[in-house]
Amino acid sequence: MTQPIIRRLPPETVNRIAAGEVVERPASVVKELAENALDAGARRIDITAEGGGLVRLLIEDDGKGMSPEELELCIERHATSKLPIGEDGQDDLLNISTMGFRGEALPSIGSIARLSITTQAKGAGDAWAILVEGGKTNGIAPAAPLGRGGTRIEVRDLFYATPARLKFLKSERSENLGITDVVKRMAMSRPDVGFFLTLDGRKRMSVAAERGEGADARIARMSAILGSDFGENALEVDQTRDGVRIFGFASLPTYSRGSSMHQYLFVNGRPVRDKLLGGAVRGAYQDFLARDRHPVVALNIELPTGQVDVNVHPAKAEVRFRDAGGVRGLIVGSLRHALAGAGHRASTTVAGYALGRVRPEGYQAPTPPPGGYQSHTASLAAWGGPRPPSEPVQDRVFDPGMSARVEPDQTRYGAGFGESPAQGFAPDQQASAPPPPDWPLGVARAQLHETYVVAQTADGIVIVDQHAAHERLVYERMKKMIAETGVQRQRLLVPEIVNLDEAEARRLLDRTGELEELGLVIEAFGQGAIAVRETPSLLRKLDVQGLIRDLADDLAEYDQALSLKEKLEDVVGTMACHGSVRSGRRLTGEEMNALLREMEATPHSGQCNHGRPTYVELKLSDIERLFGRR
């Protein structure tokens, strides 16, 4: 067998190899062509796809268009207008300010599909067109004017020249979802541009350019794409450090999703999927969410072009930062600052979900009885029934007189403010006074099932999960104590002995010094046994047995190289959970109100350490709708 000689590949083969890198699926074509439109200064981009983008793709923009000479050159490999010239007269690959710059997209697409480009330069009266099929063209030709400056690109029969690629594509529905996701991310990064997407003749996205500027325009665009719920539950992020700026919006921890697919990250306006950025978001929220929950974020990072390399991935989906640690630190710090500013706020969707569960499926407001409500007013009032909907809202507040006829079972519901059952649900005149305006969580009125605290606010009610709320409060206190003075300890009168297997006991004993810093003093007590001698004084009624076993499980999951301080949130969260007010404990009125006041003053108290809400707020208007009174 003769040794093969080195030879040059023909242009058609080179283009098809490049297409394999750049054009992975129809969504890749949409991304490349839409980025070209943005670089051309477009303020409106219309995208049409048929058959998942394989049959036909059409991208129209109102950008600056191209001259006949540029049109003929644009389909040649590595021809670009987007690469700046440096001071030395050479192409500057380190300062890329455009979305694209390689000059591979159009010739790569033309080598595997039927590509038609029609363009009209701004201010020019003539339009020109060029057709590329399988990498071959017959040159440019005059075309009908577009009526406005811009470019119209049509791609038909994608991958017809490389049919093997069709075997690796997903279903038509999946390809449509990929196209939608690409357009959605681009629309988020550019609220000043209108995006209109049509799939198989049906409008899937229609967002006009936002009129406002800054944060107002960005949140309006996010709400239009992600829904109004995101706008209502988003925290604004805007921080700058060492010339790097991060801005955008991040959701409250209680507004989370089951995957990280709803995290939208942009670097200098370029949508990216970067492990560094995703890991920074996860690190910022690890104090507030369980491992299987993920926040919804839309964050933009702006930095000098010389500090980021966008040339590390053919499809420009990944970037490399010169100071990766600084960027990560800025993301984590900015998100945690925004979360701290949220205070006790919880997601509004929690109340919406609760109301949806209360209202039976298919519920319809009751129709008025024969003769109208007025004829039944007297009989309804006599039995303590609801007043007619025509009465003013202020007359429908809790009536203390009705409680004299209803005495709840104290053993079932808890006494609330006093010893008698009636006092828990029928507060005196002073106790039923409206809560002060600076008490957003209201005044405690009762405790239900020895688990939930019910409070009255100025315009509704709040239901608090006492265990989840106290868990967050204890957790925040422990973190503050560790940072400032260290954890104070209390000695047990009788050491608590916990039996474990030898491996679990050894993991704990290997970390005795670190556990002592967290307020937990342990020592060996025979084979596989641990003696607990001191516990954090903050955790008064502590489930020592459960705490030690859970800590042994936590340590089994950590890398042995990690210190407990590096996993502080997990360890302290475990300790706080076992030392919090448990469900089933009866609280006095003073304890309930003290819990509410501390929640208002404590950051992040709207969710427990696992991202679940600590309270549900129901507005009076929503409650009235449940009873058909609105």
Describe this structure in words.
- By secondary structure, this protein is an alpha+beta fold.
- It contains 21 helices and 24 strands.
- The strands form 6 sheets. Strands 5-4-3-6-2-1-7-8 form an 8-stranded mixed beta sheet, covered by helices on one side.
- The termini are far apart.
List keywords for this structure.
eight-stranded mixed β-sheet; 24 strands; alpha+beta; elongated; 630 residues; 21 helices
Sequence-ordered SSE layout with sheet pairings:
Layout: H1 11-22, H2 26-39, E1 44-50, E2 56-61, H3 68-74, H4 105-112, E3 114-120, E4 127-133, E5 136-143, E6 150-156, H5 172-189, E7 194-199, E8 202-207, H6 214-226, H7 228-232, E9 234-241, E10 244-251, E11 256-257, E12 263-267, E13 270-272, H8 275-285, E14 294-295, E15 297-302, E16 308-309, E17 320-321, H9 324-341, H10 348-358, H11 377-382, H12 400-403, H13 410-413, H14 421-425, E18 443-448, E19 452-457, E20 460-465, H15 466-484, E21 489-499, H16 502-509, H17 512-517, E22 521-524, E23 529-536, H18 544-557, H19 568-578, H20 589-601, E24 615-619, H21 620-626
Parallel strand pairs: 1-7, 12-15
Antiparallel strand pairs: 1-2, 2-6, 3-4, 3-6, 4-5, 7-8, 9-10, 10-15, 11-14, 12-13, 16-17, 18-19, 19-20, 20-24, 21-23, 22-23
Helix pairs in contact: 1-4, 2-5, 5-6, 8-9, 15-19, 16-18, 18-19
